[in-house]
Amino acid sequence: MFVLALRSIRRRPGRFLATLLSAFLGAAIIMMFNSMHDTAGQPGVDAVSSDTLGTAAGVVGGYGTLLVLFAVASTLTVNVRQRAAELELLRCSGATPAQIKRMVVGEAVAVALVGAALAIGPAMLGGRVLLDMFQDGGQVARSVEYSFGPIALLSGVNITLLAAAGAAFLAVRRATRRGRERAGARRVLAYGALAAGAAGAGSTFFFSATDEMLMAPPAQGAIMLSVGFALMSPRLLKGVLDRLALSGASGWLAVRNLRQRAGELAGILVSLIMFTAVSTATLTMQAVESDAVAASGLVKSVDAKNLETLNLTVVGIIAVFVCVMLVNSLYAATTYRSREFGQQRLAGATPGQVLGVVGAEGAILAVAGVFFGTVAALAGVVPFTVVRTDGVLPDQFLGTWLATVAVTAAVTLGTSLGTARRVLRTPAVRAVAVTA
């Protein structure tokens, strides 16, 4: 089946570009930050520099591992769903479910291996830039030289391959298992994440305003709440649609389409919720902390600088990955609707009306994702602000939130409408005939 997997990749390489990009970015980030372990392990590195480098590698490397799994899983899930007919044909031709799983896993591992290999060069360059940034901030001594060694290389390759293999296996398993069996486990995990998030945000009130770890509980609380909402995304989307009433043919058709495809589009809502929550909460709390330190006239310690660097870096990584996941998911979901668009046009719809429906769908998804992401963010921002400044909602929140919303809307609507416009270039009769 591995030979069949390689043949499948060579025959239609375009369908694996999203997985390749996710694996490439994930491996690059993991290797870039884990090279700080190699750098810190060199002889002659002082304790402060070693601690800074080790902390950066541990925190961001951990986030990178989770994001690789999410990103690769998202792209592979879309890939497997769109290949349902092909996989069913293989099964009818005599292939067993185990053989089909091995083929899909083999495809994912082969693509991930190529992505990891391509990421080595950019990871080395990024690691040097990261070390320079720490040295410019006075967090690492100038005498420390950059090193890219076995820890970075092995962790990047191994984690990327394991994430790809695990995500591919789960994607095939989801496609063959009943939704009710999955729903029970998803619901338990969702409630657990929501409970953990609420507990984390609430524990903020047990810290003092000057505690160095004050930002950790609300940040973790916001992240866990966003994970809980993300796990509940199919139900949340259906709840929003049940209460939504849009006028006009485009609005009515958009709600109807989303209701029918709520399960498939839930993955897009996951990315929107997590991006809004993590970006808004982290950047707002960091801005509040920086302003509070500046107002007190104190100089930031090395630990405070490390925390600020890590916060901004984590948000940047999450933003890149979420944008990649959104673009991949929206592009694949919209491209797959070529036959649907063709049927609508043959029934009398103009290209402008089709784009209107797609735009309305994207707007609904963006608004729903921003809403639940904002709720999760506020659950972390408000407790932190109350303890740190005695305020409730900081002045920095609005600007950060508006910037996040702007990015969310631009990526969601831009990708959806841009892809739909490209699909509509195919004549309607041809689109229906080719995909029939």
Automatic annotation (TrEMBL):
<dbReference type="InterPro" id="IPR050250">
    <property type="entry name" value="Macrolide_Exporter_MacB"/>
</dbReference>
<feature type="transmembrane region" description="Helical">
    <location>
        <begin position="16"/>
        <end position="33"/>
    </location>
</feature>
<feature type="transmembrane region" description="Helical">
    <location>
        <begin position="188"/>
        <end position="207"/>
    </location>
</feature>
<feature type="domain" description="ABC3 transporter permease C-terminal">
    <location>
        <begin position="314"/>
        <end position="427"/>
    </location>
</feature>
<feature type="transmembrane region" description="Helical">
    <location>
        <begin position="310"/>
        <end position="333"/>
    </location>
</feature>
<keyword id="KW-1003">Cell membrane</keyword>
<feature type="transmembrane region" description="Helical">
    <location>
        <begin position="151"/>
        <end position="172"/>
    </location>
</feature>
<feature type="transmembrane region" description="Helical">
    <location>
        <begin position="265"/>
        <end position="288"/>
    </location>
</feature>
<dbReference type="InterPro" id="IPR003838">
    <property type="entry name" value="ABC3_permease_C"/>
</dbReference>
<comment type="similarity">
    <text>Belongs to the ABC-4 integral membrane protein family.</text>
</comment>
<dbReference type="Pfam" id="PF02687">
    <property type="entry name" value="FtsX"/>
</dbReference>
<keyword id="KW-0812">Transmembrane</keyword>
<keyword id="KW-0472">Membrane</keyword>
<feature type="transmembrane region" description="Helical">
    <location>
        <begin position="53"/>
        <end position="73"/>
    </location>
</feature>
<protein>
    <submittedName>
        <fullName>FtsX-like permease family protein</fullName>
    </submittedName>
</protein>
<keyword id="KW-1133">Transmembrane helix</keyword>
<feature type="transmembrane region" description="Helical">
    <location>
        <begin position="354"/>
        <end position="378"/>
    </location>
</feature>
<feature type="transmembrane region" description="Helical">
    <location>
        <begin position="219"/>
        <end position="237"/>
    </location>
</feature>
<feature type="domain" description="ABC3 transporter permease C-terminal">
    <location>
        <begin position="64"/>
        <end position="176"/>
    </location>
</feature>
<feature type="transmembrane region" description="Helical">
    <location>
        <begin position="108"/>
        <end position="131"/>
    </location>
</feature>
<feature type="transmembrane region" description="Helical">
    <location>
        <begin position="398"/>
        <end position="420"/>
    </location>
</feature>
